[in-house]
Amino acid sequence: MAKESGRKNHIESIYQVGRMYEDGIGTKRNYTEALKWLRLATEQGHPRAILSIGFILKEVENEEAEKAFQWLLSIANKGNVEAQIKIGYIYSYVKEDYMATMKWYKKAARQGDIRAYIHMGNMYDLGIGVTRNTTTATRWFKKAANLGSEEAYISLAHLYTYKKRTHKQAIYWHTLTAEQGNEASQYSLARLWVETQQDIPQAMKWFTISAEKGFGLSQVYLGAIYEEVQQDYTKAIQWYTKAAEQKDSWAYTRLGNLYFYGKGVTQDYTTAISWYKKAVEKEERDALYNLAYMLYKGIEIEQDLKQAAQYFKQAAQWKKHRDAQYVLAYMFHTGEGVRQNFKQAIRWYTYAATEGCVWSQII
């Protein structure tokens, strides 16, 4: 017992020396020395040393690194699955040899390694080194999912949502991770329920679970449902405020809108402007448009056509806000706040019409 404990402490010490050279703790960072110690730790059976070697080989290229790579290659050829995964990683991210990457991930996959299944799925999903093939990607992800991989559940949910467009399957896979407490999956699941199934109660259930954990996007969406569907402005403000405390730009805009229109609060343009300005700092497109419109019309703020045009252009150019595109076109058409320019007017009218602005289509 004592001998075994002493041996483990010895191996851990070797590993820690390597890590200290790797991170530059108590000494200058020295990848060459780190590789020597980490290689020794791996040979002694340390479970995490091989991972550090892989990371270092991504950062450095020298004679010692090449020796370490060849050594890693030799133990990968002997069937060490950790080495096979790391060799695949190095071929992908360092050497950019995707055929070799796939070769090593396949070797690891034959040994039933979940990470290899997911790497293979990603390569087929993204078309890295192979022709993109959603069906094959799905097959690899399902191999990992059958072994309980949460990462595979999420990958399958995204495939079924955005590529296969099979929403019931997407809901199934997101539900598996949502039930395990994944807040992002709870948010995505809620959106699927409301956007593809029009099931407001299910959407509210999952938005609420995620929002109560502090997930900002869920807080905003939940606030939007309370505002637009339930017309419960008190709860809408409650959730928008929680999201705003996390500096969510859409929450800023939503709060600005409630004060602008006086929904659930006394109408207060000054407070609306304050919220819009916070959102504009983050270039939130609706806030850019709303503040631009208030400046354009001089609503409870000094009219400033030049500043209005600047905000309209930001919303129109980078955020593709069709109403901003239309007003900007009109300003170029009439010369309000900008130098009259019929070519620019036609350009922005065309963009707005393409985005679906009815007025631009008529003009």
Q: Secondary structure elements and their pairing?
A:
Layout: H1 2-23, H2 31-43, H3 49-59, H4 63-77, H5 81-93, H6 98-110, H7 114-126, H8 134-145, H9 150-163, H10 167-178, H11 183-196, H12 200-212, H13 216-228, H14 233-244, H15 249-261, H16 269-280, H17 285-297, H18 305-317, H19 322-334, H20 342-354, H21 358-362
Q: How would you describe what is shown here?
A:
There is one protein chain. This protein has 363 residues and is mainly α. It has 21 helices and no strands. It has helices spanning 2-23, 31-43, 49-59, 63-77, 81-93, 98-110, 114-126, 134-145, 150-163, 167-178, 183-196, 200-212, 216-228, 233-244, 249-261, 269-280, 285-297, 305-317, 322-334, 342-354, 358-362. Helix 5 (81-93) runs antiparallel to helix 6, helix 12 crosses helix 13 (216-228) and helix 13 (216-228) packs antiparallel against helix 14 (233-244). Residues 357-363 have low confidence and may be disordered.
Brief characterization of the structure:
With 363 residues, the protein is mostly helical. The protein has 21 helices and no strands.
Helix segment count?
21
Derived from helix and strand composition plus strand pairing, the structural class reads mainly alpha
The helix content, as a percent range, equals over 70%
Give the rounded overall mean pLDDT. Answer: 88
Structure summary, number of beta strands: 0
Poorly predicted runs of 5 or more residues:
357-363
Order of helices and strands: HHHHHHHHHHHHHHHHHHHHH
What coarse outline follows from CA principal-axis ratios? Answer: elongated
The Rg value, from CA coordinates, equals 28 Å
Strand content: under 5%
